[in-house]
Specification:
The protein is of the alpha+beta class. It contains 15 helices and 19 strands. Helix content is 53%, strand content 20%. Strand 1 and strand 2 form a beta hairpin. The longest helix is centred in the first third of the chain and has 66 residues.
Length: 642
């Protein structure tokens, strides 16, 4: 399998570390600088918006201040006293020319008739409704009047000397086009919002359009105008008398982010200028560090190919790699010595093995000779009549063992009769032989030790008795299990079935078990009564057997949500979790071989499931006298499967 060398892997690893650190630092710098740039962009937009709003505010305040000053002039006093002459028209024209007013001046008498103006051909015009006010001063923002073309802004002040009635109005106008030119889009766009209006007028190259703008202006990060994205900022509120307004400035996102793009390019260039030299340096250092390891690897491969443990590694320096080389050299020297000793031991083992093989051959020959003698003695014994009977006996036992259910011990005579038969067979065999044959038979019987044969035969018979009994119990359990669907449905008191089961069990165990009962059900239950009694028998028998010496069994019945609940608990030894998890598995038992079939609780579980109920077990072996609790829950009325 191909692989990268260690130097390449180290170079890649440290290069990755360098790039990771450089990227992290660049990200930090980019984030901090980007935040500052964004803040600066917002400040610039705010400054631009405040500047534009300040220009409008200053213009309006300038006109307001002049208007109020002109109201107190001597010419205006002539209007009050009805001393009209051509001086008032001349004075208005002089004011417009001197102050380079973009609009016109208008004087109305107390009846609301225009009596003087810098605009030609409008005398005797009635005071527009927009200019009618009871206030000392009124700013009327963007509006139209019949005798002026286009939208205008008007400042209206009342001509009212102290202690006298109002004698007329002095009005100065300003063309709305001046505001439009002031807020005309360049690199940025501007919008004018009056008071707390939910809309604002956006000035574009094609004119003015209305946009939505409310008090949460700062929460909106981007504005979309004609599919172009803009960053926005709004000025602080400016107030002229009762009139309040704000100016919003919008800058194209691409233009605003040019500084961030430039910063990104600078960071990439800086990262390359730092990263490339660092990667080259890492590559050189990796090669320097890996060279001694490569030499060590080559030495190991040389030893592997040639089995020459005299190969040594050239060591220079005093670092950890040099220590590794010295350790390797010491190891190869020691291995060489051990290899030499091993060769000597192998030679000795070969000699020893040859001697053992010879002894085995000799011993095998002796055993074969002995075996031949035993076969001869066996042939002589079989000729006797009693040995024939013994052969028939063994054949009968073998036949009964192969019978899957047979009760092999039903008519079997006592074991002592077989022992007597064997002894009699030996005696007859001795009488049938001459003195030399009898001597030979006795010698072989002493070697075989017929008592050992008799003992083995007894153990075999006892084992088969236990196996047959266990098979019989399993067959009976399976027969009961096969009859689960054959029982009759009855309506009974479950407590009576429990009590009858207890009477049968306590006849044998009444001296060491105390029964405590709490019957609260006392209600007829529709069920397979015979099968439920078998469940009670299995659980109660297990509970009694779980009590080592003496103890108690606690039985309760109750009704819960149209279900009959029966609990049977003991204060025995309990069971661990691994046993509890398998307690309802078929053929699982914790008893010794031959003492149980492992089907009782499995059959009980099937009976409860047949009643559409549940059978659960609780046990805790860690708590003393906690024991085991079986909980049975079945419906009061039997639910039969379709």
């Amino acid at each position: 399998m191909s692989r990268f060398s260690l130097s390449i892997r180290l170079t890649l690893f440290f290069s990755f570390i360098v790039l990771l650190v450089t990227t992290a630092l660049s990200a930090v710098v980019f984030y901090q600088a980007g935040e500052k740039i964004n803040q600066q962009i917002n400040r610039n937009l705010s400054d631009i918006a405040n500047h534009k709003a300040s220009e409008i505010s200053n213009m309006l305040l300038f006109e307001r201040t002049n208007l109020l000053a002109w109201r107190a002039s001597s010419v205006m006093l002539d209007v009050v006293v009805d001393d009209l002459d051509k001086r008032i028209n001349s004075e208005l024209k002089n004011l417009k020319q001197y102050y380079q007013l973009q609009g016109d001046l208008y004087v109305f008498n107390a009846s609301g008739i225009l009596i003087a103006s810098t605009q030609h051909g409008v005398l005797k015009t009635k005071l527009p409704e927009a200019w009618q006010t009871q206030k000392d001063y009124q700013l009327v923002f963007k509006h139209e009047v019949p005798f002026i073309q286009g939208n205008i802004i008007a400042h209206v002040t009342a001509l009212k000397p102290p202690q006298l009635k109002m004698q007329g109005y002095l009005v100065i106008t300003h063309s709305w086009d001046d505001i439009s030119r002031l807020l005309a889009p360049t690199d940025s766009r501007f919008a004018l919002r009056q008071g707390n209006d939910a809309t604002a007028e956006l000035f574009t190259a094609d004119g003015v359009e209305s946009i939505e703008m409310n008090d949460d202006f700062a929460t909106k990060s981007l504005w979309l105008f004609k599919e172009n994205s803009y960053l926005g900022s709004i000025s602080k509120p400016f107030t002229v008398n009762d009139f309040s307004f704000q100016v919003a400035a919008f800058m194209p996102k691409q233009l605003a982010l040019e500084q961030i793009f430039e910063l990104t390019q600078n960071l990439l260039v800086a990262a390359l200028l730092v990263g490339i030299p660092m990667i080259l340096l890492v590559s050189l250092l990796s090669r320097h560090l890996v060279t001694p390891i490569k030499e060590l690897t080559e030495a190991i491969r040389g030893i592997e190919d040639s089995n020459d443990l005299s190969i040594q590694v050239q060591v220079s320096g005093r670092d950890e790699v040099a220590d590794l080389g010295n350790a390797f050299n010491r190891m190869t020297s020691q291995l060489g010595e051990l290899f030499h000793k091993n060769m000597i031991v192998e030679k000795e083992l070969e000699n020893l093995n040859a001697n053992l093989e010879n002894q085995v051959i000799e011993r095998t020959a002796q055993l074969q000779e002995t075996l031949q003698k035993l076969k001869s003695a066996q042939a002589q014994l079989v000729q006797s009549e009693k040995m024939v009977s013994l052969g028939q006996l063994v054949a009968g036992i073998a036949h009964e063992i192969n019978n899957p259910i047979g009760a092999i011990y039903a008519n079997m005579p006592p074991l002592e009769e077989y022992i007597d038969d064997i002894k009699g067979t030996v005696e007859i065999a001795q009488s049938c032989l001459d003195d030399e044959g009898t001597k030979t038979l006795n010698e072989h019987l002493e070697q075989i030790d017929y008592a050992f044969v008799i003992d083995d035969l007894g153990q075999l018979l006892n084992s088969q008795k236990q196996s047959a009994e266990r098979i019989r119990n399993i067959v009976l359990s399976l027969r009961n299990f096969s009859r689960l669907d054959q029982g009759d449905v009855k309506t009974v008191l479950l407590e009576e079935g429990i009590d009858s089961t207890l009477q049968m069990l306590l006849h044998q165990f009444k001296n060491r078990v105390v029964i405590e009962k709490d019957y609260a059900l006392n209600q007829m239950v529709e069920c397979y009564a015979g099968e439920l009694n078998q469940v009670f028998m299995n659980i109660l028998a297990n509970a009694i057997q779980a009590i080592p010496d003496t103890g108690a069994i606690f039985i309760t019945t109750a009704k819960v949500n149209e279900n009959a609940i029966i609990t049977i608990a003991d204060n025995g030894t309990g069971m661990p979790d691994d046993i509890k998890a398998k307690i309802f598995d078929p053929f699982f038992t914790t008893k010794d071989v031959g003492e149980g079939t492992g089907l009782g609780l499995s059959i009980s579980y099937g009976i409860i499931e047949k009643h559409h109920g549940t059978l659960t077990v609780e046990s805790n072996q860690d708590k003393e006298n906690h024991g085991t609790r079986f909980i049975i829950a079945i419906p009061l009325k039997l639910v039969k499967d379709a």
